[in-house]
Amino acid sequence: MISSFVNFLRNLCQSIGVSVNLDNFTCDKGDESLVAAKILNEINRFFYQTNSSLNGDYISEFHKYWEENHFQILNPEIDDKKCMCVANLLEEIYNKHDIRVQHDTLDLTNEQIANVRFFTAIQDFKIDIGTRQNPFQLYNTNPDFFNSHAIVSNELLIDGFLNALGASSQRDKRKKWMHSAAQLLNEKYNSNAFNINYVHGGDVQSIKNTIAGVDLYGFSQKKIDMLLRDMADLNVWKYKKNIQNINVMSDKNTMRVALRTGILKTRIPLLASYLDVYCYQYSLIDEWNALAWRRVWELWDQIDDNHRPVTPASIDYLIYRIGKLACWKASSRRRCIPNKPVTEKWLQAKARQDQLIFNVERYCVFNDICSGSNRILNHPMSISIFGQTGWKSGKSNEGGGGGIQS
After folding, report:
1. Distance separating alpha carbons of residues 53 and 61, to the nearest angstrom
2. How far is CA 129 from the centre of its chain?
């Protein structure tokens, strides 16, 4: 009987076109274990061990190779035909339903809404989600939490704000972001986030370059896209230029939908995070996922009398929920059930019902677009570079052992 390890060797040889006959590989277990030990040692050395010949901060020879060649290996592509299929389906939905970000902003003014969303977006906080207090309600309780002058002059106020949000991790970073962002508002925007769009003349890219162009203010590209989307969907800001640059917020849910619908394709199924040293694959798919959804939004405009939302990121509100609740595998039971109508109940997710116990949990509107092996494609995962269990702490050498610990 051919062991699973020998079968692995045979499949490996066949996949790269090497003709090796392993059918008669019938050595006893002792001999096979010796062969396996030698092969695994070489695999471990290449993939996970550093050595004196490597320059820079490379984890291993594979790390250097992966950095230089990950794009060519994965070969990401955007499929316009699939993008058009998705656009047509979204048009059917948006033609019947007004789908936009739903936040309970109470009776706050646009100026107050802008300040609340500006300071919560820094923390990447999912606002109004049940157990935590709605930050818009928090404004009524303590408006100084969103007052840039008060924030700069009172560090304890920042602690109170973060406590109210339940933002306990990375406290030092969060406090610095909050303080620096408040200073930015004071120095450049007359102490009010509402003025950001006006100062930049409604130019999306100018806003992104200023606020997310440096790490000082805590705005990653994802966070600034989220803020810009919300300001558009809540009718707080009107943009005049580069609206197409507000990307769908790329995360595991929107990536999953992109891969399974086929709007984004790679040469091979994505590697497990153990092989994605320093997250080169994750960063690449993160970038191309945003580009793929933007392409859907662009092609959508070719449909006559379309109901396309004002920004590409506005699709995210729907796509995220589909990816999280419908395009998901739970207890080995797939939720791809076709031929169900899209109803108001399906779309209207009240903030305090983020369990979303409505039809989106039970089926996926993209079911007819996903096909074949695409249905099981998975999103990439990320291993922290600098975290306590990240690649930095997991470095090993020729001595063996080492690696990432839980």
Report:
1. 9
2. 19
The amino acid present at 355, given as its one-letter code, is Q
Query: Which residues does residue 77 pair with via DSSP β-bridges, in sequence order?
Result: 265
> DSSP secondary-structure letter at 347?
H
Q: At 74, list the tokens.
A: 């994965």
Residue that has been written with the tokens 């694959």 in this structure: 281
What angle is formed at CA 314 by the lines to CA 350 and CA 330, rounded to 5 degrees? 55
H-assigned helices in 266-383: 280-300, 316-321, 344-347
Q: Outline where 271-385 has alpha helix (H).
A: 280-300, 316-321, 344-347
Query: What is the residue type of 294?
Result: R
| Amino acid at the residue 350 | K
Q: Which residues of the chain have pLDDT under 70?
A: 1-2, 20-30, 125-133, 328-363, 386-388, 406
**Chain centre to alpha carbon of residue 116:** 23
Tens-digit pLDDT profile for residues 208-242? 999 997 888 999 898 999 999 999 999 999 999 99
Question: Is residue 83 a contact partner of residue 303, using CB atoms and an 8 Å limit?
Answer: no
